[in-house]
Amino acid sequence: MRFKTLVASITLALTAPAFAAIAPFSTGNSELFLVVQDSVAKVSYTRDLGPVLYMDTVVACESGGPNCLKYTFDIAADTNWQTFAGVANLSIATWAVMAGDTVGPLQAGTHRLLTTVRTADTSKIVNLTNSQLTNGIGSTQGSQFFGSVNATGTHAPQTDYTVNGSSVNYENVGSGLAYFGKPAGLTPTLNGNAPFNVTNVIGDAKIPLYLLTRSSSANGGKVAVNQLNVGAFEFYASFNGQNLVVAVPEPSTYALMLGGLLAVGAIARRRRG
Question: Domain residues of the chain, as ranges?
Fold first, then answer.
């Protein structure tokens, strides 16, 4: 199997550009971002994964879009991660990769969330209602989280979505809304709206990515759930505390594998003949 691999090793040093805001849900096409939370110490680490990993780019890959790759981000080299690791208990810390879209009326296909889900909770995803999705990532929660987190760390100031940044935030500092887990902002259960948790423990490998979307204008209706590219080449995220891997298989991989299998079969038949 031949994957194109782009290794994006980013060291956030003092000389790095300081214009690295995360494109928020309200843009309609947010950047993917990593959040790591220690819910006991009430501290979280947030890092954006743009400019290459935007929601629409990832979703388009499932239908054969361009630029579908496997990305590895060097987290250990980030000084903000080192700060987080020094105050958090990584043995209990949990992580998630997310992106969202809160633009548009309350109808089918709007208010989208691209996210990991806790492995033990995957059967609960189908119980999320349209109103719970909208309320969980909506303008109030999303704008408060992004407005706060984009003013901290190397995200600030909030002017440029084309550069990566990161930050460490505490629930008991300032408004606390830059902390992932603060009620009224973004939390692992979408501020209590979701019957599932979006986070997994550090070290969990190949966590699938799910696209959750309003299925209709009916608030009580269940959301549409799509596990991206179900099968041998499912999209996934893995985080071991050193590197984050987001794998978005290249569409041509499928054709290459099929061609390879057919070629092997033909050779085997010729040898038997």
Answer: 5-272
